[in-house]
Specification:
By secondary structure, the protein is an alpha/beta fold. It has a single domain, classed as Mannitol-specific EII, Chain A (3-Layer(aba) Sandwich), CATH 3.40.930.10. The chain contains five helices and six strands; from the N terminus they run βααβββββααα. Strands 1, 2, 3, 4, 5 and 6 form a six-stranded mixed beta sheet that branches. Strand 2 and strand 3 form a beta hairpin. Helix 1 runs antiparallel to helix 2. The protein starts with 6 loop residues before the first strand and ends with a helix. This is Putative PTS IIA-like nitrogen-regulatory protein PtsN. It is found in: Cytoplasm.
């Protein structure tokens, strides 16, 4: 699965303003609802927050990848946000987060689909150039262009 097949301009925010990770996740979920990928906001949001309670999804490099599988998800989807200001995500490396990927997977497709998406993103995040391209993207189209390299 290519990431560009599950992300849309509607699920990209280049200046998301949030005070904490819960507010960030909720705002990103709202974009997925508007895009049609999520059909039940509360159900999916609960799944993402429950996953977050099990362990931080702040993977380092200033990036977090919250995710959830839920009956509230209509189709696999990827959200992307650059934060207006970094927020504490209790990341593995202790640094605040400024880039967030949100992964949504329908419960019935929960097998390994989200793991494939996570692995694809994680592999690319190891490369500083990839992270810098995401940070410097000035439009949703540019974000999608960067993700096409995955």
């Amino acid at each position: 699965m290519k990431l560009v097949e599950i992300i849309s301009k509607e699920t990209i925010d280049l200046s998301l303003d949030a005070d904490d990770k819960e507010e960030c996740i909720e705002k990103m979920v709202e974009k997925m609802v508007k895009s049609g990928a999520v059909k039940n906001k509360d159900t999916y949001l609960q799944a993402v927050l429950e996953r977050e309670e099990k362990g931080s999804t702040g993977v380092g490099f200033g990036v977090a990848i919250p995710h959830g599988k839920s009956e509230g998800v209509a189709a696999p989807a990827l959200g992307f946000a650059k934060l207006a200001r970094p927020i504490d995500w209790h990341s593995l490396d202790g640094y605040p987060v400024s880039i967030v990927f949100l992964i949504a997977v329908p419960e019935e497709q929960a097998g390994n689909e989200h793991l494939q998406i996570l692995a694809a993103i994680a592999r690319k995040l190891m490369h500083e150039e990839f992270r810098n391209q995401l940070k410097e993207a000035k439009s949703p189209e540019e974000v999608i262009q960067v993700l096409e390299t995955i």
